[in-house]
């Protein structure tokens, strides 16, 4: 007879996500996970697989949550350009906020730490970036159709510029938290969205 789990896998996954987000993949050992999650090593392996599989599941959860927020922000009715600007400014504010800065963005952290040498992580990072770029592109196409963005502007190239800018903002924010550097870069980039 199979035993009933004595823990909530969903809550444990969320807790693992937070630990990985705060410490990174390499700096988080299985012993750290056992201690932080409050469940045994065997339960972790039986429920989530090895540390790497748990990390990928946590990264998937993070991306799904972030993507839902971005979709809501960038697809609301009305003017599209103010929504794009608000997302960019929110990312910048988070990048230098003491509450978020030291953790950074889990997708960006994964891009820097794991993606260069680990294909499953790289695929997830690319997928997340592709989704974000698509949302930005759709918003910018809508902005152009509504007359908010000049006809000669390339919404695809602008979406890519914003995506790359925001990934850089996350890295700079995590490394230094220089508010002026981040704010000035963001405002210069936003001036291109006219």
From TrEMBL:
InterPro entries recorded: Homeodomain-like_sf (IPR009057), HTH_TetR (IPR001647), Tet_transcr_reg_TetR-rel_C_sf (IPR036271), TetR_C (IPR011075)
Domain HTH tetR-type: 6-66
Record key words, sorted: DNA-binding, Transcription, Transcription regulation
Keyword Iron-sulfur: no
SUPFAM superfamilies per UniProt: Homeodomain-like, Tetracyclin repressor-like, C-terminal domain
Any GO molecular function: DNA binding
DNA-binding region: 29-48
Alphabetical list of Gene3D superfamilies matching this protein: Homeodomain-like, Tetracycline Repressor, domain 2
Pfam families: TetR_C_13, TetR_N
Annotated protein name in UniProt: TetR/AcrR family transcriptional regulator
Native species: Streptomyces cavourensis
Taxonomic placement: Bacteria, Bacillati, Actinomycetota, Actinomycetes, Kitasatosporales
